Amino acid sequence: MSDHEHIIEAAGRCRVVIRNGRVVEVGTPQIKDCPLARRFACPVKEMTPEAIRENIEARIRSFGMCTPEREVLAGPDFVIFGASELLSSAIRRGELDAAVIASDGAGTLVATNPALIQGIGGRMSGLVKTSPILEVIARIEENGGVVLDPETAAIDQAAGVALATTLGYQRIAVTTAVAAEAAAIRERFPDTVIVAVHTTGISREDAALMAGAADLLTACASKHIREEAAKTALLQAGTSIPVFAMTRAGKTIILGKIGETDQPIIVHGARLPVPGSQSPSPLC
């Protein structure tokens, strides 16, 4: 069996290396506390390498993350305004045709199945590098996904948008954690809905670039994203870990999700950002 190596930046942007289904390296998280991480199926109550290792190992056991047993479909929301939840909802409602996302074991892919988007993105984030796993790629393809590069499992979101365009999709969304990539996608594919994710620790310059390129901006534990969003955001969803709509397209997606959910929601005017009673600590 060839080696399968996967690098993710987990809770607190902690670098984790998984090789052949085993956690072989865990770095140091950039934050000390995260309200979202405390809600994980295997909660990270203290932001330590040991707790993060336990969480990642639980994901491997639970749904096969970074292994040939990886489950790729899921239904229920984990959080109401998560990136995968928003994109799944928009595709269900017919507002989007396809989403360009990234999966462990497959890399960049084009998905049109809401359950596939949620199954991949709702269960993991912060994928930096991955290796192709034939079983995972086959499972994605069985559920309507198209993998950008099955040979290498490359992560290239701009190329993923190009692939989605080639496949004939017009209303395309893409997730990215790289500000320069978001700006390049905006320039090359101006009508794409860009969702900025995994922004903890982003520099002030990249936060400004991301805020200018993205339609939806997830704040994670980023101080600079909150500061940039305050200047031009049209809408904020959530308070502890807010998501900002920077454009009318982003605002439409969030409002559509609100219309779809049965959860009680409060809507009121305010100067943004509105802080929550609990936020990641420290913001960085």
From TrEMBL:
It comes from the Archaea. Pfam families: DUF2099. NCBIfam families: methan_mark_8. This is Methanogenesis marker protein 8. It comes from Methanoculleus marisnigri.
